[in-house]
Amino acid sequence: MEITFQFDWAAAFGSIPHLLPGVPWTLLISFGGLAIGFFIGILFGLLRISPLRWLRWPAIVYVEVFRGTPILVQVLFIFYGLPQLLGSPINALTAGIAAIAVNSGAYISEIVRGGVQSIERGQREASLSLGLSRSQAFRYVIWPQAFRRMIPPLGNQGIISIKDTSLFSVIGVGELVRQGQIYIATTFTALEVYFMVALMYLVITWTLSILLRQLERRGLAGQ
Amino acid sequence: MNDDATQPIVRMQALNKHFGDLHVLKDIDLEIVPGEVVVVIGASGSGKSTLIRCINGLEEYQLGKLEVDGSQLLPFGKSNRALQRIRTEVGMVFQQFNLFPHLSVVENITLAPMKVRGWSRADALETANRLLERVGITDQAHKYPAQLSGGQQQRVALARALAMEPRLMLFDEPTSALDPEMIGEVLDAMRELAKEGMTMVIVTHEMGFAREVADRVIFIHQGEITEQGEPESLFDNPQHERTQSFLSRVLTH
Q1: Is the ipTM reported for this complex over the cut 0.90?
Q2: What number is the average pLDDT over the span B206-227?
Q3: Distance of CA B195 to the CA centre of its chain
Q4: Residue A109 domain-assigned?
C-alpha cells in the first residue's frame, strides 16, 4: 500500500533560515504596537470611568469604533487610505504598529476599566476615610490591585495581537507570513512552510504565556 | 482644629438625606462632645449606617447643617478641602474590615500616616508596632490580611485608623461580619479605646456592649431619632413604643 501522506521534513527545516528574518518584524510590530496600545488603553480606560461625561464619551466612541471594525480594514485604511488624506505615504511598518496600537488599545481600555471597576467600593472608602486624596487612593490602593487582576486578560490580548500581525502580510511588511509566502513562491512547499510558520508563532506565544504565568504568580504571592 | 473640650466635635442640625425617592435621614439633630461614646441602634435599613457615614462625608446629604471638628461639611459633597481635613481627624472601622489586600499588615497601617501626615517611615513604623501591640496583634506585622482571621483583620483595621491619631472614631457594625468566637476580641479592643477617652460613634447590634460602654444610646427608626438617652434608661425603660418593640425583638433571642 502506498503512503499518501507526504511531509518533506527536509523542506520544512530548509525553510527556517528563510522564515527567521520575519521574526524580528513580527516581534517589532507586536510589541511596538502593544506598548503604545497599553498607554492608549490606560488613558482611555480611565477616561471611560471618569465622573465627567465629556471625558467619558470620547473613550466610549474610541472603543466602539476600533473594537467594532476588523483589524484588517484598520490597517488597510491606515496604509492605503490615510496617505490620501495626509498627502504623503506611510511605510508598512509604521502602519502595522499603528494598527496594533489602536486596535489593542481599544481592548486594553476595556481591560483597564474592568480591572479598576472590579475593586470593591470599600477599598476606596477605607482610603478616603484615612484622609488619602482621591488620586492617592487610586495610586496606592486601587491601581496596584486592579493591575494584578489585569495581568491575565492583558496576556490574552498580547497573544491575540501577535497573531493579528499575520494579517499585515497584505500590506507587504516582511513579517513571518510574508516571508513564508515569498519562499513558497519559489519552492511550492506550502504544507511544510506554513507548518513551520505556525510553529514559530506557537513558540513566540508560548514563551509569552510562560512569562506571564510567572509574572502572575509573583504578583499574587502577596494575596 | 477645635480644642475646646466643651464644644461638640460633631454638630448636625436638621440633616436630611435622600437616596432618590427614599428619605433616609429626616431632620437629624445630633451633637457629640469630645470623650463621649455614642452607640446608634436600630433595625437594618433604619439609616443608622448612613448617619455615621455622613460624618466623614462618605455619604453626602442634601439639606441641613453639619459641622465636624470645627469644619463645615457642605451639602451635596461640595466641600472638598474641608472634607479631606475632616477625614484625617476622623477614623473609621468598617463592617467588612476593608484592609488593603496587596499590602502587609504594617504597610496597611503606615500608608496614611506617611502619605497624608508626611511622617517618616521610621516614625510610622514605630507607631504601627505600638498600635499592633495595643490591639493584641504580635508577630503578624509582615503577614498579608488574607492570612489573618476575621477578628485579627478587624483589629488591624482599628490600628490602621488609630495610626492617624484621630479625634473621633466611627464604627460601622464592626462585629457584624465576624464569626461569633471572634466578636469578643474586637469588642475588647474597642472597650479599651473607650476607657482611654476616645470619642466614638458606634453602630452595632451588640446590645450588651452598648449598655456597658455607651454614654448615650440613640435609637433610629425610619431615618428619625426616635429616642435617646443613657443606656440604663433606654434599655430598661424605653419611652417610645417603637423602641420597646425593637428592643423586645433584639433582646429576647
Answers
A1: yes
A2: 96
A3: 16
A4: yes
